[in-house]
Write a structure and sequence with these properties.
By secondary structure, this protein is an all-beta fold. The protein has two domains: 151 residues, no CATH class; 97 residues, no CATH class. The protein is 0% helix and 65% strand.
């Protein structure tokens, strides 16, 4: 039986009203092989993103009214995957999602489904995959944050008299999860011994915004000098139409972002190192990415397998 654990830490930058603060997103996952003979595995993953102690700004108090609020998004997911042949595999994940905004909260269930196919183009390995994410229920926030009081109107034809405010609440509108369809292809364009150069590409189509695409290269050297160490270097570029601002019609403020299709927004660089001899394997990966209007962000991931 094999198993593995991975952790990902990403200090993201989140734009709020008159603030730009670095925040922390943390993901953790564990994968366990059920049997090498049947080629099945189960996985558990947990992710959290949020920030707190943000001032509450109102029209009456543009510098803050003394209150603070926090935001937290968390998911817990269970996954089952199976190899149906030496070339084709598929998996499904069931997720529980919790979304907390200030003093309101909402929850939903969702399903992810994906497949992976291996083949050869001449003498070069090629891998293709597609994934559908977040097929599930809707979110609708409830809680003290939408509670209020109202003074009921007097009955028709009666003289208005002072009345005590009565408890009431606003009705929040439910909304669906952002369903995402992804298709990706990876081709080993060069392979010499333990070294390979892989060309990667991906197309994404959300249900609530414009599609995006990305392409990248990875150079990978395995078991250098029979030492057990492996190295990787990576670079990619992502086209995200939603991040291309039209300064003339956007929010009415000056911006350093351009409206062209190809800008520094979406550029990413990174690399990794891994060690494995015998049953135990571990690795570390790092990536930097330009997030456009949100600035740049750093990704750190650690993995351990046995």
């Amino acid at each position: 039986m094999g198993a593995g654990i991975a952790f990902v830490f990403s200090p993201l930058q989140v734009v709020g009203f008159a603030t730009l603060d670095p925040k922390l997103r943390t993901d953790a996952a564990a994968l366990f092989s059920l049997s090498r003979n049947i080629g099945s595995a189960i996985g558990i993953s947990v992710g959290s993103f949020g920030f707190g102690d943000q001032p509450v700004y109102t029209v009456e108090n543009p510098d803050g009214d003394g209150r603070v609020y926090s935001v937290n998004e968390t998911f817990v997911s269970g996954t089952y995957g199976k190899n149906f042949s030496d070339r084709f595999s598929a998996g499904v994940s069931l997720k529980f999602i919790s979304d907390k905004l200030g003093s309101t909260s909402a929850s939903a269930f969702a399903v992810d489904f994906g497949t992976n196919f291996h083949a050869m183009v001449g003498q070069r390995p090629i891998r293709a995959a597609f994934v559908i994410q977040n097929l599930g229920s809707t979110l609708q926030h409830q809680g003290p944050g939408i509670e209020t009081t109202v003074i009921p109107p007097p009955p028709l034809g009666t003289v208005p008299v002072p009345r005590e405010p009565q408890p009431a609440s606003f009705r929040s509108k439910e909304f669906g999860l952002p369903v995402m369809f992804r298709v990706s292809v990876a081709l080993d364009v060069l392979s010499q011994g333990a070294n390979r150069l892989t060309l990667l590409s991906e197309f994404t189509q959300p249900n609530n915004t414009k599609p995006g695409a990305s392409a990248g290269l990875e150079w990978y050297s395995q078991n250098l000098g029979n030492s057990g160490f492996s190295l990787a270097a990576r670079g990619s570029y992502t086209v995200q139409p939603d991040n291309q601002l039209n300064v003339g019609t956007a929010a009415g403020f000056a911006s350093q972002e351009k409206a062209g299709s190809f800008t520094s927004d979406g550029a990413a660089l990174g690399g990794g190192i891994a060690y494995g001899k015998g049953a135990v394997k571990f690795g570390f990966d790092y990536a930097w990415r330009n997030m456009g209007p949100l600035g740049s962000t750093n990704f750190f991931s650690f993995s351990l397998g046995w």
